[in-house]
Amino acid sequence: MKLKRSFYERPTIKVAQDLIGKFLVHKIGPKIYEAEIIETEAYAGFEDKASHASRGKTPRNALMFGRAGFSYVYLIYGIYHCLNITTEKEGFPAAVLIRALDYPECDGPGKLCRQFKITKAQNGLDMTKNVLWVEDRGLKRKVVAGKRIGVDYAGASALLPWRFRRKRSNFFFHHNHFR
To answer: 155, 148 in Cβ contact below 8 A?
Structure first.
């Protein structure tokens, strides 16, 4: 069953945890890409110095301040796209980064976007519609938490245990900072 907007309108940390075991689906014409979400990271509020929104609203991060349940796709290092899903209430900047899928070569946010054909063209899509969405297929997964990756510049925010993954994933996590 496709997730409803109310799923995304909850606290970002809870959404990030609950997305583990759900399925990301991207429909491009007759082709459908789908795989289980096995790793996420939460970014929430102005105090989270790892968040794009910590310095205020900009044209790049404006979607984070909008309605929950929309895709926020951006480019990092000038070459890799990253897919986030907006959360919480309008005006409060928050989103969940989809870090990994249980799918060949989807063990990082840039790799999963490349494999699933997600680019800036998918930025701002309503995740409750029929192009890019998340489904609940009834899987219940144990989730472990750890610190986020690549945000060492964020001071104390870098240490927050806001990275979540499925326990006993099928591939090796080279930054294994999980409890």
So the answer is: no
Question: What is residue 162's three-state secondary structure?
Answer: coil
Half-sphere exposure of 98 (CA within 13 A, CB side): 34
Euclidean distance between CA atoms 85 and 121, whole angstroms: 15
pLDDT value of position 177: 40
For 68-87, how does the pLDDT look when each residue is reduced to its tens digit (9 = 90+)? 999 999 998 889 999 999 99
Tell me the C-alpha distance between 53 and 145, whole Å. Answer: 23
Say yes or no to pLDDT of 175 above 70: no
How far is residue 106's CA from residue 21's CA, in Å, rounded to a whole number? Answer: 15
- What's domain 5-166's superfamily in CATH? Methylpurine-DNA glycosylase (MPG) (3.10.300.10)
The pLDDT, as a whole number, for residue 50 is 85
